[in-house]
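Slide 14.
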Amino acid sequence: MPKPALSPYRVAFDDSFRVSKAPTEPPKADRGKDQRPRHEKELETQIERLDAYQRMLYAQNDYALLLVFQAMDAAGKDGTIRAVMSGVNPAGCQVSSFKKPSPLELDHDFLWRSAIRLPERGRIGIFNRSYYEEVLVVRVHPEYLTNQRLPHTPALEDLWEERFESIREHEQHLARNGTVILKFWLNVSPGEQRKRFLDRIEEADKNWKFEDADIEERQYWDDYMHAYEEALRATSRPWAPWFAIPADDKRYMRATVATIIADTLEGLDLRYPAVTDERRSQLHAMRDVLNGK
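Slide 15: predicted structure.
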């Protein structure tokens, strides 16, 4: 399996991760308005790399790339996905958003609805939220389990451990079969979330983004942080690493995410398929036909 990309934001594989130690802001040298042009230029550079690697990923057709994005509301998932993937051929990627499960989805196990949307070889799949909702929002609101009609419901702590185990095994199976998995937690601070919520209320063109439930869920901040800490500690593994990305500065966040993705693709040693001598002779013959020879 490919080695995970190096990054200071990669969550350790030894269960030592702590939310309290995960930064929400860039390093001091990368903060401030005067750094914005540099971050924007870095994003452009990484988008060019992504475009080149995506073409080879598609042509080689050996690997699939799955990008998982999780975050609190207003952390910038949609904007990051849009910005980072802006230079990639739309035919080579697919975005899936996971909201409240449908009755059909509730009639299956909790991994089913995401499993049927996994990217095929040669393509990039993007999950805007994912099966991790089952150990995040459901953990904060265990009353949602009633709709899942589990035949044998263990004690809650045992249930989360069982789901972590299922997720680890699921992701390892995918990795063994050619799916490269990168998972991003966009780590926004409560203060920055409050500011972005106020922007959504005060700016008319952002009103549509604001929902009453955003305020309700904000009251569970500490519960969500505990759920994220447990989930990232239990499921960040070499075959499916988590990256806890500072999200208070959107430009820095987007450039950082793009760099991790591009570095990972570079590590796959992607190449265009080799052309045999026989095939090259055939191509030359067809060129002669097209040239009227």
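Speaker note: Strands lie at 64-71, 93-97, 124-128, 179-187, 242-246.
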